[in-house]
Write a structure and sequence with these properties.
transferase, Rossmann fold, seven-stranded mixed sheet
């Protein structure tokens, strides 16, 4: 009973964290191209049944639906769906939006031809449980596609920078950027997949004018960053330290003219 209550509390905090910011703005301003990249990589075809796990506002779901697939966009935080529905309507895409926990998906075994996640499932705290669910709902011969930030890339470094200022993670929780490690993903999926491909790519981002601009933007709109700052409360000294560390990271990764490159891992595999 205690474990069930603890897990429910953890999931409630995760939902509140992602609802606290404005993740659709992050999609519009920076990561928007990644959803279509994943959909193209998966070669999604008309008539296929597709599940987007931790879909957010549908960065990958909408392009998959535009490719002619029957798409379910699922997420623990349904507050993100309104922006996705507006984007789908503007582009003429039809799909389903359903609240779902990536670690306990409410779908039958082997329900989908394609299961994918773009910067989503990586934030489920229990990696093996989430991977098991990805595999369970994908039919034999079906395809799995994952796009995740790498530990060494810019967003991975951002999480590492925030870690000393964040509360200790719950027992058993693992860092999100581990999904950007090829060895970790291979271990999670194991021998239940074949034809696994994992390659590192980079997203060019030119939205920020300086390291401080990047920091202030993420403090304003990105749920995980907002949560860390809230955990510091009125500790002005710690807030100032984190402010300086994030601005320095952003400035360090500025390639000139405000341009950054954010590394991600693109994984594709076929369910045995």
């Amino acid at each position: 009973m205690t474990d069930t209550i603890t897990d429910k509390n953890l999931k409630a905090r995760h939902r509140a964290m992602w609802a606290s910011g404005n993740y659709p703005a992050v999609v519009d301003d920076a990561v928007g191209p990644l959803g279509p990249i994943l959909v193209r990589e998966m070669q999604i075809r008309a008539g296929e049944r597709v599940l987007d796990v931790a879909a957010g506002s549908g960065n990958a779901s909408v392009p998959a639906a535009l490719a002619g697939a029957e798409v379910v966009a699922s997420d623990l935080t349904p507050e993100l769906f309104d922006a996705g529905r507006r984007a789908a309507a503007e582009q003429g895409a039809t799909l389903s939006w359903e609240e779902a926990d990536a670690e306990a998906l409410p779908y039958e075994d082997a329900s989908f031809d394609v299961t994918l996640s773009c910067l989503g499932v990586m934030f489920a705290p229990h990696h093996q449980a989430a991977a098991d669910e990805l595999l369970r709902v994908t039919r034999p011969g079906g395809r799995i596609g994952l796009l995740s930030w790498t530990p060494e890339g810019f967003i991975g470094r951002m999480f590492a920078t925030m870690k000393p200022y964040a509360p200790p993670p719950p027992l058993g929780a693992q860092p999100p950027p581990l999904w950007g490690s090829p060895d970790h993903v291979r271990e999670l999926l194991g021998e239940r997949v074949e034809d696994l491909s994992a390659r590192r790519e980079r997203l060019s981002v030119d939205h920020f004018t300086s390291g401080a601009d990047f920091r202030d933007y993420f403090k304003r709109v990105y749920g995980p960053t907002i949560a860390v700052y809230r955990s510091l409360g009125d500790d002005a000294e710690r807030v100032a330290e984190l402010d300086q560390a994030l601005a320095a990271l952003g400035q360090e990764r500025d390639l000139g003219g405000g341009r950054m490159e954010w590394e991600y891992l693109l994984v594709t595999a076929r369910r045995r």
